[in-house]
Each structure stands twice: as C-alpha cells, then as structure tokens.
Structure prediction request, 267 residues.
Amino acid sequence: MPSEHRPVRRNHLAALGAATVVGAAVAGAVAGAAVGAGNTDPEDTAAAVASAAATTATSPASAAGSVAPAILEESPQPVSVDPLLIRSVARQVLLEQEQPEHLTNVDLIARDVLSQSPADPAEAERMTREAMLGSGPGAPVASSPEAEPAIAPPQCPPTARACIDVDGKQAWMVDGGRITYGPVPITTGRPGHETVRGSHHVLRHVRHDHSIPFDSPMPFSTYFTVSGIAFHEGRLDEPSHGCIHLGHHAAAHFFEHLKVGDEVVAF
Prediction:
C-alpha cells in the first residue's frame, strides 16, 4: 500500500477512537476538517479531536443535547363534581336496586345534589345516595305534644310503616300497628290508572323528580313499586295517574321518615 495513504488511515483511526468520547458526529467532523486542510500528521489530528472533545464536554448546549430529556410524571387530575358525576352515581344506584332508569330523571337528581354544593366527589356520591335511598333532606314538619298513638285500621298490619286507604283517600305512617303520623288527605289513581293495592316496599327516594310519561313535577318522591308508583307532593283536588298525592308537609314527612325496605300497604 502506498505510504502516502497511511497517515490518512491513522487520522481516521484516531477519529474513531475519539467517537467513544464525543460521539461519531463530532469526531468525524474534526477528522474530515483536518484531512481536507491537508493535515496528514496523526498527532495533530488526534490533538484536534481531543480539543473538540474538551470543548464539547464543557459546552452547555452540547451537554443539553446529549442528555435525554427527563420524563416528568403528570400528577392525576382531580375528579370534578359536575352533573356527569352525579348522574353516573344515580345510574349506579338504580342498577344496584335493579330499577329501570327511565322511571327516574337523573338530571333532576344532579340538579338537587349540586344545589347543596358538595365539596368533593365523595360528598357528592354520599348526597346522591341519600337522595335516592332515604336519609335525605325533607322539609321540617311541625311537631306538637301528642296523645297516646291511635290504633291503625285493621287492614294495616303491624309490620307496615305506612298504610293507604285508597277508597277513603287518606294515609298514615305507623309503627307496630299504631299511628305515628296522620291520617293525612291524599288523592289516588284515576280510572285506567288505578293505584295498585297490596303490600309493597320502599325502593328509592328522589327529592326533585319529574314524571317523564306525564310531564309533571313529583317533589319528595318515595317510590314503592317497580312500575313507578310513589308518594309525592301533588294536587289534592284531582286524581293521580296511580301515585299517592300528598300535601307539601305530608310529602316531606313521608320522604324523610320512610326508609328503603319499609313496608307500604294499600287497601
């Protein structure tokens, strides 16, 4: 091999050695520049490469470019308290109770819960469940000293917590066969939408409900049949579509004191 090519090869070997320190791009550029300038001395080329390595190592820009960017862990975003969250909880409650969703207006539940300004998602879930399962808010009912509780009608068994006289248009709350509230006036189902008689159990509560089939408000709804029959505030001068209409204070009292699972008897 001609001797004139040997210095050039040694230049390249020196550059490749330097690549392990400063990277192939820097070393190759320095070696190429040296050869292009006619420098065939391997020691000069190695010195140039070493100088470039020192400069590169101390250069902030190069250091920044040669170090992989740090991966910043994003902190989880907090769950916001909004109608979407409350509607989701309400649907979960209906699913747990095996109740059809179309009988409950979850938008109104969301409106009612948000009006109480829950501080966080946990409190919003608690308020939503209370509104639907009982233990929810009810308007205060004036209390006064009472005499010995009266005996409930014989059609009202001692296991019942509320009884409805469909024909007599009145209702009571009872405990162990004794009346604890009432009787209060009611209206019941009109022809074609008769109130279902028999023994039922409270299923859920909805503070601000709205009848979807009949486009009518149903404040203080206390549901006790899967077909959507409930105690709720309503007009007492006209029949219902099967529900039990109560006055405002009576509806609030039934809503507040009847819990999920309580027996309701209509006779």
